[in-house]
Specification:
Pfam families: DNA_pol3_beta (PF00712), DNA_pol3_beta_2 (PF02767), DNA_pol3_beta_3 (PF02768). This protein is an alpha+beta fold and 383 residues long. Helices cover 17% and strands 42% of the residues. The strands form three sheets. The chain has a 14-stranded antiparallel β-sheet. The relative contact order is 0.12.
Length: 383
């Protein structure tokens, strides 16, 4: 192998492929990146049997070839190199030399025969926007569980139905759902469902954010999801199982008997102020009245805090409900909207949070079924 490549594209390709490297590789070879030079292209690939990542960049290839080198070390080297000088790579026996201007590295290589074969994908099932997918994954991952003893709840479910792709996640205390437009490939199924590890999906879609369109290969018998763009590709192994059927538990639009609309930044700041006195697992109480929202936390035997905000409120009578402050802040952050709408049925049943435009009027408020919806379970305050 012998080639010359520009620093910027090479560093980006290495960084993206390194997202697939395991934190604790079970065998040394899985800590390596596979570099393949051919057809004036250098491709970097990482794989840990669960997630794979491939990223390519144009290169002036003098001698084609393939080599395995330490992925973390190569990523650190390409990140720390300064200037815009091109990089020369050359394989000399069992060593790979990397030269950039006056800087030279000699890297140990690993045996290629020990590296597993990367997954091969079938034809794409459809395409969607790269930026929209990355945004949706970031939003719904907020609600994904972190307990590895309940693997199903650590995933993001992709549900293809009626020409749209819906992403959903839950940890049993909140449920986040976001729907995206989907351009199906000819001859593919119009319904499918797959559960993908949230952390892996979050990491890998970052390399595809800038792509106008992403090709999606839904799992078949292989149980592997594939995402690809012109110079980037990733695969992820699905989790066995599926999330609770959220469409059956989701409140109907005509079931809400109270609605509130509050400026998001003001609400976030107030929740953070009041939460300072909330002990572990203690909720924040939200009391809505005509024109205002009162937030309260703490107990009579300890510190207490009260804050009051302006709020639009529409209901037959005052309404009080309590939430875990961390889960509430997570939802407000994920919505990332100038204003937040709360949709209530009963104070003991989950509330629905949706985003709204600045200056929105509560009397003309509606729910966009494609935008992020965050369903949050209330907490019964202790006596």
């Amino acid at each position: 192998m012998k080639l010359r490549i520009e620093h910027g594209p090479f560093a980006a390709a290495v960084a993206d492929a390194a997202r697939a490297l395991p934190a604790r590789p079970p065998v040394p070879v899985l800590a390596a990146l596979k570099l393949t030079a051919e057809n004036d292209t250098l491709t970097a690939a990482g794989f840990d049997y669960e997630v794979s990542g491939q990223a390519s960049a144009p290169a002036d290839v003098t001698e084609p070839g393939t080599v395995l080198v330490s992925g973390r070390l190569l990523a650190d080297i390409t990140r720390i190199l300064k200037g815009k000088q091109p990089i020369d790579l050359q394989l000399e026996g069992a060593r790979l030399t990397l030269v950039s201007g006056p800087t030279r590295y000699t890297l140990h290589t690993l045996p290629l025969e020990e590296y597993p074969s990367l997954p091969k994908l079938a034809e794409p099932s459809g395409t969607l926007s790269g930026s929209e997918l990355a945004e949706a994954v970031a939003q719904v991952s907020t609600a994904a569980g972190r307990d590895d003893t309940l693997p199903v709840l650590t995933g993001i479910q992709l549900d293809l139905c009626d020409g749209k792709l819906t992403l959903a996640a839950t940890d049993r205390y909140r449920f986040a759902v976001r729907t995206l437009n989907w351009d199906a490939a000819e001859g593919t199924a119009d319904a499918a469902k797959v559960l993908i590890p949230a952390k892996g999906l979050m990491d890998t879609v970052k390399m595809l954010t800038d792509a106008d369109r992403i090709s999606v290969t839904l799992p078949g018998l292989s149980g592997v999801l594939g995402l690809s763009a012109p110079s980037r590709a990733t695969t992820m192994r699905a989790i066995d199982g599926e999330l609770p059927k959220y469409r059956e538990i989701w409140p109907k639009h005509d079931s809400f008997n109270a609605t509130a609309l509050i400026d998001t930044s003001e609400l976030v700041a107030a929740v953070k102020r009041v939460a300072l006195v909330a002990g572990r697992n203690q909720p924040i109480q939200l009391a809505f009245t005509d024109g205002s929202l009162s937030l309260q936390a703490g107990t009579a035997d300890d510190a207490q805090a009260v804050d009051v905000l302006d709020a639009q409120f529409q209901a037959g009578e005052d309404f009080t409900i309590a939430f875990n402050p961390t889960f509430l802040l997570d939802g407000l952050t994920a919505l990332a909207a100038p204003a937040t709408a709360f949709w209530f049925t009963e104070k003991t049943k989950p509330a629905l949070l949706t985003g709204a435009d600045a200056g929105a009027d509560i009397s003309h408020l509606g729910i966009d079924d494609d935008a992020l919806q965050y369903l949050l379970m209330p907490i019964r305050p202790s006596a």
